[in-house]
Amino acid sequence: MRDGPDIARVAALIGDPARANMLSALMSGKALTATELAQEAGVQAQTASSHLSRLVEGGLVAPRKSGRHKYFSLAGEEVAEVLEALMGLAAGKGHLRTRTGPKDQAMRQARVCYNHLAGEMGVQMFRSLQAQGVLVGPDLQVSPRGRQFLKALGLDLASLPKSRAPMCKECLDWSARQSHLAGRLGRALLSHFIEEGWARRQADSRVVQFTPQGLHLFEKHFGKAVRPQEDFA
């Protein structure tokens, strides 16, 4: 037996097309039912249950009950980061889906990566936070200046929910192939944008769509974003 972690087992779990589609659907950060995941995977309910059992056993997906219903979500942010990196590797090697849809450009511009902002706007925000000295050092510490910047934006780091997750962490963006911001701060910023009405999640999609005013405020704080987005309806 070889030493070290068994990456073959994890790779086999992700490598099945139906399971890969389920995991991709859960990258939205939303908990989904087995029925919803069966639709995403294009398989029958019984087959979906078998796939989900394997994903739960393998530690990639976590189940939870709410009343009479059972939901599934990714087991943690580290799973999302692995999936995002694999998407980037697949895109870089030309392994793209044969059919593209109308939301592809919007997905590349701004989308949810589990619980934080990804896409070109996510990369732009991360670059800006570093350029402005909000995030400093290789370990991405929030500087005193950064705390003031975030406070002016409406975020108080001391009020963020306690968690074992790091405050700031790089996540490799699959479409831009550069880093965007994950961690507690990345999650808090996306939540702030949505709560303040800068942006909203598109239904049944990972797309994040900014309002004209929200886009203006984003550019005021983080620099010019890639344009245009689809009209905000």
From TrEMBL:
GO molecular function, one term: DNA binding
One BP annotation, GO: response to cadmium ion
Domain of life (superkingdom): Bacteria
Sections of the chain in a coiled coil: none
HTH arsR-type domain location: 1-94
SMART domains: HTH_ARSR
Gene3D superfamilies found in the cross-reference section: Winged helix-like DNA-binding domain superfamily/Winged helix DNA-binding domain
Cross-referenced InterPro entries: ArsR-like_HTH, HTH_ArsR_DNA-bd_dom, HTH_Metal-responsive_Reg, WH-like_DNA-bd_sf, WH_DNA-bd_sf
PANTHER family according to UniProt: TRANSCRIPTIONAL REGULATOR-RELATED, TRANSCRIPTIONAL REGULATORY PROTEIN
Name of this protein: Helix-turn-helix domain protein
Biological source species: Thalassovita autumnalis
The organism's taxonomic lineage, starting at the top: Bacteria, Pseudomonadati, Pseudomonadota, Alphaproteobacteria, Rhodobacterales
